[in-house]
Design a protein that fits this description.
Structural class of chain B: alpha/beta
Structural class of chain A: alpha/beta
Strand content of chain A: 5-15%
Order of helices and strands of chain B: HHEHEEHEHEHHEEEEHHHH
Largest sheet of chain A: 6 strands, mixed
Strand content of chain B: 15-25%
Order of helices and strands of chain A: EHEHEEHEHEHHEEEEHHH
Number of strands of chain B: 9
Strand order of the largest sheet of chain B: 2-3-1-4-5-6
Shape of chain B: globular
Shape of chain A: elongated
Helix content of chain B: 25-40%
Oligomer: heterodimer
Radius of gyration of chain A: 47 Å
């Protein structure tokens, strides 16, 4: 019989369910075997959420595969090829099957692989994944938080679509997967695998797997620690990457309608395991390991993100006798600092704006003044001209008058002269006559 | 030794009846979903398999096991240990040794925490029973709730410390007190001031389940009267015991919980002795005038308590502890360092004061 307070006592039980606990047999039916049911019921009432990220070049059938996996028609039109960068488009759907409600979010990489320079293609994907982790971390760090009703947007599974070249992985694929493998559970799949023959496919798969291994890319391994699913999971692990074909069209085979792609030379049945690995993918992704994918995301990838982020922000685990909650305090302090900076920036921007406005105003005033001056000058000029004209006119008038006067004077003189001359003429005439 | 996951038939509610095809996933040998199935009749091609997540969750739960921490509070001699042993059908709690005249009654309340691993049908549980010997035994019982309050808050603190670590454990060990069973002595009259005081303070930080101890000393009428009186007093003092009204999630919850609220406190009798009654071996207490069958609801309400605590509301009790009581503690603790932020978050005063001792 151990007496424990808050500390632990030396473990002496073989059960791994805790230290210091003794295994004790029950003398009858207690009833706590209903606990898993209680837990499941609670989750059913709450609903589940699952978020899948589809990474792959445009045209590899990502949307079609999602439609096929979940038996619904999700999206609208296929995306264009002329995107300037990689953007992530996410859509959330509510699905229900028997009593299970699933909030499924499908995130698509739009424009992946379309650019001429693909160096930065992986960046927006990494940013997106980190943003989801960040949102969860923010919620977790809040003082007043509602974690149990938080809509978890963290990516639980990343389906990486490999183009069916039949040769090897593209360098873009390798680089992207390497950047993502510590952030998300990667499940590589060969898309549109009806383009490859069976023998080529086997070689392709081997090549892909060896390239992944030699580059140290950690893809998601289906868990083999639980006996009930260990066998099937380890078998499936050896079939990775899954070669899939997606189709939402149905074709009649025998007397059944099956999902298939019809070619002149034959029909590829999606759910026929001899034709492609679609069934395996569905089995692994949804029916067997959905919960494990969610758990790995939370306990491994998210924890890693959280650890890195907190360390980056300058925290470290405090030893027991230093002040507790330095994490919270420092976080708050940092946040205040950040807010302060933000405010300062805002102030600066406002100042700058005010300044600019002032300058502009001054400029405008200047311009206005100039205009006024110009106007004044013109006016003056005009007046001057006018005056000149007036003067000239006056002088012209004067001249005219003078001329007139002279004219009249001259005429008068002429008249007089004529008269005198006439009389003179007369006189002369008279004299002659005499 | 563990069996594979099973759908436990006795507990499938209507919600679960349409459950998944578990066989399909257990092993391929069972004619799994590959190839062959496509040709069989009645195979639903539109079946995606989302509901298989229930089975996955169950598997995970079975593998991880569960933890439950129950505290028992009450004066000596009220049958606390016996009740725990009856509830869990094993010696999970040790009866306190009778103090001889030489041994002094302890001056303070001890807190004794004992853990056991129990297993039933593949479900493993780590049960911790926290005993509080000495409670209410002194002449002056002022502040006897303090050590208990401190213990409960210490568990919240330990959890919080681990949660804010940068390198933290995958599964934070949960030592938080999920449920506190308070033993009311069967006086038949009303609650004593000590009872009121204790429950008033502690109902704000932990789920309290009050029970009338040693109820075989009350007749049915006396019991009903006592219960009614207790309920009135609880109401009058604003004491919200489990299941708390304010945490009912929906109409269905409310309906179920109202029925329970009309019955609390449960009048219980505990026993770890079996007797022969009508050809069956039953747990009971044998007296000269008859044998009280512990699990007979005509005799006492032990079965209701067991069903509430273990068979139906165990998960709910743990949820309320983690998402409400613990969160309140956390808010208050984090606000201690940031009184400004407290006002910004608009936390009502009584929540903040709840954890005051």
């Amino acid at each position: 019989m151990e007496i424990l307070t808050n500390s632990h006592t030396p473990p002496h039980t073989c059960n791994n369910s805790g230290e210091g606990a003794r295994a004790v047999p029950l003398a009858g039916h207690v009833g706590f075997d209903s606990m898993p049911d209680q837990l499941v019921n609670k989750s059913v009432n709450h609903g589940f959420c699952f978020n899948i990220l589809c990474v792959g070049e445009t045209g590899l059938g990502k949307s079609t595969l999602m439609d096929t996996l979940f038996n619904t028609k999700f999206e609208g039109e296929p995306t264009q090829h002329n995107q300037p960068g990689v953007t992530l488009k996410s859509n959330t759907y509510e699905l229900q099957e028997s009593n299970v409600r699933l909030k499924l979010t499908v995130v698509n990489t739009v424009g992946f692989g379309d650019q001429i320079n693909k160096e930065d293609s992986y960046k927006s994907i990494v940013e997106f994944i980190d943003a989801q982790f960040e949102a969860y971390l923010q919620e977790e760090l809040k003082i007043k938080r509602t974690l149990h009703s938080y809509h978890d947007t963290r990516i639980h599974a990343c389906l990486y679509f490999i183009a069916p070249t039949g040769h090897s992985l593209k360098s873009l694929d390798l680089v992207t997967m390497k950047k993502l493998d510590s952030k998300v559970n990667i499940i590589p799949i060969v898309a549109k695998s009806d383009a490859i023959s069976k023998s080529e496919l086997a070689k392709f798969k081997i090549k892909i797997t060896s390239e992944l291994v030699s580059n140290g890319v950690q893809i998601y391994q289906f868990p083999t620690d639980d006996e009930s699913v260990a066998e099937i999971n380890s078998t499936m692990n050896s079939h990775l990457p899954f070669a899939v074909v997606g189709s939402t069209e149905e074709v009649k085979i025998g007397n059944k309608m099956v999902k298939a792609r019809q070619y002149p030379w034959g029909t590829v049945q999606v759910e026929n395991e001899n034709h492609c690995d679609f069934v395996k993918l569905r089995e692994m992704l949804i029916r067997v390991n959905m919960e494990d994918l969610r758990e790995q995301t939370h306990t491994r990838h998210y924890e890693l993100y959280r650890r890195c982020k907190l360390e980056e922000m300058g925290f470290k685990d405090t030893d027991p006798d230093s002040k507790p909650f330095s994490l919270q305090e420092t976080y708050e302090a940092k946040r205040n600092e950040f807010m302060g900076e933000l405010q300062k920036k805002e102030e600066e921007m406002r100042q700058m704006f005010v300044q600019r406005v002032k300058e502009k105003e001054a400029e405008l005033k200047e311009a206005e003044k100039e205009l006024h001056e110009k106007f004044d000058r013109l006016k003056k000029l005009h007046q001057d001209e006018k005056k000149k004209v007036e003067d000239k006119r006056k002088s012209l008038d004067d001249e005219l008058n003078m001329f007139k006067q002279k004219k009249t004077a001259a005429e008068l003189l002429q008249n007089q002269a004529q008269q005198a001359g006439g009389s003179t003429t007369l006189k002369r005439d008279k004299e002659r006559k005499k | 030794t563990s069996e594979g996951p099973q759908v436990i038939p006795s507990y499938s509610s209507s919600a679960m009846s349409e459950a998944v095809v578990p066989d399909a996933m257990v092993s391929p040998a069972v004619g799994g979903p590959y190839g062959e199935k496509a040709s069989g009749p009645g195979v639903d091609f539109s079946y995606v398999g989302i509901d298989a997540i229930l089975e996955q969750m169950r598997r995970k739960a079975m593998k991880q096991g569960f933890e439950l921490n129950i505290m028992v509070v009450g004066q000596s001699g009220l049958g606390k240990s016996t009740l725990m042993n009856t509830l869990f059908k094993s010696k999970v709690s040790r009866k306190s040794v009778q103090a001889t005249a030489q041994e002094k009654i302890p001056k303070t309340i001890e807190i004794k925490s004992i853990s056991h691993d129990i297993e039933e049908k593949g479900v493993r549980m780590k049960l911790t029973v926290i005993d509080t010997p000495g409670f209410g035994d002194q002449i002056n019982n002022e502040n006897c709730w303090r050590p208990i309050m401190k213990f409960i808050n210490d568990q919240y603190e330990a959890y919080l410390q681990e949660e804010i670590n940068i390198n933290r454990k995958k599964r934070i060990p949960d030592s938080r007190v999920h449920c506190c069973i308070y033993f009311i002595p069967p006086t038949g009259h009303c609650l004593r001031p000590l009872d009121v005081e204790f429950m008033r303070r502690l109902s704000k930080v932990v789920n309290i389940v009050p029970v009338i101890a040693k109820a075989d000393t009350l007749t049915l009428e006396e019991r009903d009267f006592f219960k009614k009186k207790i309920r009135e007093e609880l109401r009058a003092n604003g004491i919200d015991v489990y299941p708390q009204k304010e945490f009912d999630e929906d109409a269905e919850d409310r309906m179920i919980n109202e029925k329970i609220r009309e019955m609390i406190p449960f009048a219980v009798v505990g026993s770890d002795q079996e007797y022969q009654v009508n050809g069956r071996r039953l747990l009971g207490r044998k007296t000269k005038w008859g044998t009280i069958e512990v699990e007979n609801i005509a005799h006492c309400e032990f079965a209701y308590l067991r069903d509430l605590l273990i068979r139906t509301h165990m998960q709910n009790i743990k949820d309320i502890t983690s998402s409400i009581h613990y969160e309140m503690y956390r808010v208050r603790r984090l606000n201690e360092n940031n009184t400004v932020v407290a006002h910004a978050n608009g936390m009502p005063e009584h929540h903040l004061a709840a954890h005051e001792m």
